[in-house]
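Researcher: Good morning. I'm working through a list of sequences from a screen, and I'd like to move beyond sequence-only analysis. For each chain I'm collecting a predicted structure so we can compare shapes side by side. This is the next one on the list. No need for commentary yet; just the structure.
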Amino acid sequence: SLSQEHKGVNYGGVPGQPGVVQHTAVNITRGQQVITESPDHIIWSLCCFVYSNPFCLGLAALINSIRARDRKLVGDMDGARRYGSTARNLNIVATIIVTTAILITIIVFISFLLL
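Model: Good morning. Structure tokens for this chain:
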């Protein structure tokens, strides 16, 4: 019969016993603040610090990235966003300065080669 055929099927429980299915439910109500991840830009800050540290902007970005990570660990998401945003802005400025300097160096070098 059909019930005898399915009697030996095991779905992850104790052999011969039915398996246990677990469910997870998350309820979010209106007005409840949802905690989202805030980027700390630590990798970008490390690259700016190690490879191109114009006017110590890479160091300042790295310090703000570490502060953002520390704020996240404490649970202060507003502080983490603030420090992460500052680190991002410092990284952008440092990257633009270094990219501009590299392009100017290449253009000057090529112009001397062509003379």
